[in-house]
Amino acid sequence: xxxxxxxxxxxxxxxxxxxxxxxxxxxxxxxxxxxxxxxxxxxxxxxxxxxxxxxxxxxxxxxxxxxxxxxxxxxxxxxxxxxxxxxxxxxxxxxxxxxxxxxxxxxxxxxxxxxxxxxxxxxxxxxxxxxxxxxxxxxxxxxxxxxxxxxxxxxxxxxxxxxxxxxxxxxxxxxxxxxxxxxxxxxxxxxxxxxxxxxxxxxxxxxxxxxxxxxxxxxxxxxxxxxxxxxxxxxxxxxxxxxxxxxxxxxxxxxxxxxxxxxxxxxxxxxxxxxxxxxxxxxxxxxxxxxxxxxxxxxxxxxxxxxxxxxxxxxxxxxxxxxxxxxxxxxxxxxxxxxxxxxxxxxxxxxxxxxxxxxxxxxxxxxxxxxxxxxxxxxxxxxxxxxxxxxxxxxxxxxxxxxxxxxxxxxxxxxxxxxxxxxxxxxxxxxxxxxxxxxxxxxxxxxxxxxxxxxxxxxxxxxxxxxxxxxxxxx
Length: 475
Prior knowledge:
Blueprint: H1 10-20, E1 24-25, E2 35-36, H2 38-57, E3 61-62, E4 68-70, H3 71-74, H4 78-84, E5 89-94, E6 97-105, H5 110-120, E7 129-138, E8 153-163, H6 166-187, E9 192-195, E10 207-214, E11 220-230, E12 240-242, E13 248-250, E14 252-259, H7 261-270, E15 287-292, H8 301-314, E16 319-321, H9 328-338, E17 342-347, H10 348-353, E18 355-360, E19 366-370, H11 374-400, E20 401-403, E21 420-424, H12 429-439, E22 442-447, E23 456-457, E24 464-465, E25 468-472
Helix pairs in contact: 2-6
């Protein structure tokens, strides 16, 4: 049965895609808490492996904090508790006994970690303190849930750091952005870095940098965020250090977080009407081998396919030999849905000619690889798939961005012509709220790294401004 088109009905296509590729099972009896299947979990753990690699390379230490947070600790930072007030799960009883202090099921880990940081940090020699964890967080999502994109139990990466000065903390923000670039390269996704508005920044942050990418329905998806806290958390949690001159000072802090939305973005951005298209770096199987058997052939195709698999596996490729008793066409269909980057077909004639036939999942291109150059030839194709996916996604995001000078250029209704809009903004909240309220559209923020000098007029009040803003409807 043919799936609904990606651009015809993205919402239906996405749910169909997740189910047919067997990435997770949403039939668990709690809405928004889905079961990771082996295939989907393998993709996510590969993404996690790149995150771990980059964090370890930058001297972050992995930790694992308890799931529950006492209400007394959770409420110490008033803006933080206010920001999460409607999203947290509370534990009120242990067995039949009512708890003296209610417990919060972790929505994020600042209030769990920082009481411990106040014990770990004593001297300037303890800084910087750079930690991270990959855990599940829980938020009571009231909107319509969608696998990976909007869930109540969230697979989550978060780094938390403490620094001597605000300038040192700012250097950490720059390092986080470098880490992001390396991870994004592996999953072939473009993104924008936008400083969120004051009313949309993370609760308790000095400023927040949102990490956004464009989706097929014209909306944007926030894949993650980076926060500079200054001393907004270290003061209420009393995280101080003794400076070289003997004085005690509060640390400056940052956090950086991304979630399973990365997988939701990979599915959405790269997939097509025939199934997933996975970047080779995160594909559970980078290569699938399909033996083309024939009763007329005198060549041991099955044995040659096994040898081909072993040779590729020994070279470090993740490879699957599909030797099921089924028609080749049925196998093609199954692996196309699962997004395996490269299909290799091996029949008697291929063996006689000293080649293997290939088919690329991204472009559909077909050809042959000489057996005597199998390893470099295969790697060359996989590398080109990575480059092609990234370029295609970047072109889509660029095409989705439109510069406007009047609010009349924004469609009044939620249509298929949605875009990311860029425009001049004076920066005042009154104009910002008026813009958002009139069009039911969110100001994503202003560029973290502006591309040249911007000169224009505020799209609301008409004042001259050098501030460029971006807005879109969001997932």
